[in-house]
Amino acid sequence: MEDFTLFLKLAFDHVLDWKAYDHILFFIVLVVVYSFKDWKKILWIITLFTIGHTITLALATYDVVSIDVKIIEYLIPLSIFITAFINLITVKKKNFHQSNTNLFFAFFFGLIHGLGLSGFLKMVLTDSESKLLPILEFALGVELAQIGVVLLILIAGFIAIKGLRISKRDWVLVVSSIVIGIVIPMLIERKFW
Questions:
Q1: Which pLDDT band, with edges at 50, 70 and 90, does 129 fall under?
Q2: Residue 128: pLDDT above 60?
């Protein structure tokens, strides 16, 4: 039970770490286009991200896949930028939030984000330990932490749209633009060439 708590805590620390806020930024741009009524699709987004994240985390932890950390560190903010940019260009469509694009992004970019954490998890796990159970415990913690982040994003959207009477289109445009503004310096700083 102690190990279970440890890996849950590590997952929460990973998702909610303000120094490594790229995880939160990614979920902001993934979910900003939705509202509480879209809870099923949102749950799929969270779960698909966790599945993608867990697959590559396991593959990298077991040394099946190895990619240069500098490339992964660049691809993470690039994934955030792409998702935010897609929000900007699709927000003008009448049913922009009904697209399955974010489901694909959640899974595909989850694969990239999982590679970014594998080095950390390898350091925590000793060679003698079974790695599968800690990876799954960590994945559960990631899933729970992401649900908390998503709830905060949905509450902020609800307040902005219903309380402050900001149009959904404007909300998505402003939030996605702010995230792009935060991510561009990360892309410049992390370029690997």
A1: low
A2: no
- CA dihedral defined by 107, 113, 119, 123, rounded to 10 degrees? -80
Give CA 51 to chain center in angstroms.
11
Residues in the chain: 193
Gap between the Cα atoms of 96 and 98, Å rounded: 5
117 HSE (CA, 13 A, CB side): 29
In tens, the pLDDT along 45-66 reads 999 998 998 999 889 888 899 8
CB 84 within 8 A of CB 143: no
8 Å CB contact between 119 and 61: no
Per-residue model confidence (pLDDT) at position 162: 96
Contact between residue 1 and residue 124 where contact means Cβ atoms under 8 Å apart: no
In 3-state terms, what secondary structure has residue 73?
helix
| Four-residue CA torsion sign, 71, 72, 78, 79 | positive
- Between CA 6 and CA 4 the distance in angstroms is 5
How many domains does the chain contain in total? Answer: 1
Domain extent for 120 = 2-190
pTM above 0.90, yes or no: no
Nearest to 190 by CA among 101, 72, 48, 91: 72
Other CB atoms closer than 10 Å to residue 122's CB: what's the count? 16
Whether the CB-CB separation of 57 and 138 falls below 8 Å is answered with yes
In angstroms, the CA 34 to CA 28 distance is 10
